[in-house]
Specification:
The protein is an alpha/beta fold. The protein contains 14 helices and eight strands. Strands 7-6-5-4-3-2-1-8 form an eight-stranded parallel β-sheet, with helices on one face. Strand 2, helix 7 and strand 3 form a beta-alpha-beta unit.
């Protein structure tokens, strides 16, 4: 991987949305999470020469990341279309200590119909849902029941989330229990100490074991990038987890002091791009934590489009981990329809 040259390649042309809004609406009408046609990431043997070769030019990364929000913008109908697209990419999440089954059922109702019906009618959109619902293990059964009859998958955080410091055999067993309970996606947390001490073989073996325990369930590897120290560690950890078979790499648990940022996202996307260039396998990306504004979602979508391409603008390769983002997007859509901003209580979570 060469994150060293962090000025964008030929894909840095203007963020030019070619599709008219009515076309985007028609595509959205076909409900989320289409059948995945790309091969799952089977992983490959740990290549330490490749890992050690990874370097990151931090100043170039920060310079590139700092330009994306200023240079890339969409307005009016195009903005509405991209905000609708963003909704389909949200892992609607509740990970609170006071979660109840009723709260999870309300969240699932919001996932099934994330925007008020009058706004959907005005926008001419049918069948809009979020990409997934993400919960703790104890809430899987309630979520699966509430989403019965839809194509919305249930994702469960696992392996001693958020710190990942419980005994290893219990972390592996937790994955198995969540899969048995009906989770179709498992968000695991890596051992940060393995990255901080350069134990790449240990990280690879851990991730490989988690991948095998997931079976047919897709696995998202949470790197907790705010605790990895350097962007080079982020890049190397991303690569090792992909070598070990991660279907997605994810920035954060949302519980760290620093969560998803544009520099971290750029580094992880470049790692994904390098892995694809060398193997032909597409790995997904999930920024999580701190993404709460509609304008932020547009910035991330612009970065994905430029760095990875249109194929990644799909729920099986890109997700937002978010709880409050949807509310702000719905407010922006109401403003687009009516010309007025509404109070938050008009867009209840369930």
């Amino acid at each position: 991987m060469c994150v060293r040259r962090c000025e964008a390649r030929s894909n840095t042309s203007e963020f030019n949305v070619q599709t008219e809004t009515h076309t985007a609406k028609a595509q959205l009408g076909a409900a989320q999470l289409p059948d995945v046609v790309d091969q799952r990431n089977p992983g490959l043997p740990l290549d330490m020469d490749w890992v050690r070769a990874v370097q990151v030019n931090t100043s170039a990364v920060e310079r590139r990341a700092g330009t994306i929000g200023a240079r890339r913008s969409v307005k009016k109908d195009y903005q509405a279309a991209w905000l609708l697209k963003a909704i389909t990419l949200i892992d609607l999440t509740t990970l609170a200590g006071d979660d109840t089954e009723n709260r999870v059922r309300r969240l699932c109702a919001k996932a099934r119909q994330p925007v008020r019906q009058d706004l959907l009618d005005a926008l001419g959109v049918d069948g809009l849902t979020t990409g997934a619902v993400c919960v703790y293990h104890d809430m899987i059964e309630a979520a699966v029941d509430a989403l019965h009859g839809t194509k919305i998958p249930v994702a469960a955080v696992s392996t001693g989330f958020p710190a990942g410091l419980s005994p290893f055999h219990l972390r592996v067993a937790e994955i198995g229990e969540s899969v048995k309970a009906g989770a179709q996606e498992i968000d695991i947390v890596i051992s940060r100490r393995k990255v901080l001490t350069g134990d790449w073989q240990g990280l690879y073996d851990e991730m490989r074991t988690f991948r095998e325990a997931c079976g047919d369930a897709h696995v998202k590897a949470i790197l907790a990038t705010g605790e990895l120290g350097t962007l080079r560690n982020v890049a190397r950890a991303s690569l090792v987890c992909m070598m070990a078979g991660a279907d997605f790499i994810k920035t954060s648990t949302g519980k760290e002091g620093v969560n998803a940022t544009l520099p971290v996202s750029l580094v992880m996307m470049r790692a994904i791009r390098d892995y694809y260039d060398r193997t032909g396998i597409k790995v997904g990306y999930k920024p999580a934590g701190g993404i709460s504004k509609a304008k932020d979602s547009l910035t991330y979508l612009a970065l994905v489009k430029e760095e990875l391409g249109d194929d990644w603008l799909d729920p099986h390769l890109f997700r937002f981990g978010a709880s409050s983002l949807l509310g702000d997007i719905e407010r922006q859509l109401e403003h687009h329809v009516t010309g007025h901003y509404s109070a938050g209580y008009r867009h209840a979570m369930g």
